[in-house]
Write the structure tokens for this entry.
Amino acid sequence: MRAVDLIRKKRDSGEHSREEIDYLISAYTRDEIPDYQMAAWLMAAWLRGLSRAELAALTEAMLDSGEVVDHSYLPVKKVDKHSTGGVGDKTSLILAPIVAAGGLAVPMISGRGLGHTGGTLDKLEAIPGFNTSLTLADFKRVLRECGMALIGQTAEIAPADKKIYALRDATSTVENIGLICASIMSKKLAEGIDALVLDVKTGSGAFMRKEEDAVALAEVMVDTAKRMGKKCVALITDMGQPLGRTAGHSNEVIESIQILEGEGAADLRDLSLELSAWMFYLGERTKSVEEGRALANEMVSSGKALEKFRDCIRLQGGNPRVIDDPSLLPAARRRAEVKSPSSGFIADVNCLDLGIALAMLGGGREKKEHNVDHGVGLEFHKRIGDPVRAGDTLVTIAYNADAQLQAAQKMIEASYQIGDKKPPARPLIRRIIGD
């Protein structure tokens, strides 16, 4: 086979065979196809699209470019969750301990934040000493000992995805449902899981702002997983406002601990329990989602989930005393407030800009190599539908440097729309795909 022929075939709207896709991905991973030819194929695929069969083949080829982790040493089902990201989305830190405490294994390979979205690895690294760069051997050791482990992508996991993603980022071929699906699913299925629960966000703070786009992505990912013999379901959930009451790394660790203690924000608690319930069900730990919800609640109320999180922190080199003493986490030195300019009701929120404001203050990265300030954060005092008076605090900012404070304050204030009437309530879970 020749790359130029495959580029021409996709350019002319042809459908690739599994063998053609296998060749394309394996040859590129071995540096036998240059970047400029892969870039041309990516643009052709972006413009012409990929069929469901091509997507399954592409996902499998990227998966097989590296090591698929073997967890046969574990006597229980292996289940994971993936979120498409947003502001204040910290459910991984909550549901992994819940599900592990309930008797399943959660081998979670997560990512870092980029742009306006937070990353699970960055939140975990706010915990002093927590190591997200475990070797595969240590990853398995932690899983064996406590039933959960949370790490970043290793060199052995889906190397084709790592290489192709960098090229997509540089050639404006990121925003394509098929390529997004293959990237996510190749990494997740390389974890050696039996089932996967997807949290696909929609709204102003989501990658897929329109619900129909979120549904389309969810359908493709669920179909791809099932073609590869994995149980999968996707929940379409609201990201029209931050999830929970905080954003920022230390803030979100603290809020996650509060939920595991049986307290905290209702929306964050409800979504974490629902995702856990689906993980229990797909992992055959319970016979129904309803039983899964009951089991998830029991793991929280009994304290078993909190102790599981403590065990994981200890086994991955972190200081487990943060569970009882949040002051051990990095904290910003200063506080500022953003107040409401008028009275009425919170009618809408530009969640994207809240995430950007946090990144401007040091809580995110403009480039992958940048460091984040784990201590900075936002605390949200008002949600959509809440009454507000002029001068009420909308957001409290925890910050260290003055450089971007005024710009961030202005952006945050402009993010809130104040109306005369209370808007209709928005469901947290919009739809379920593949149940």
Observations:
- The radius of gyration is 22 Å.
- The longest strand covers residues 195-202.
- The chain has a mean pLDDT of 93.
- DSSP finds 16 helices and 13 strands in the chain.
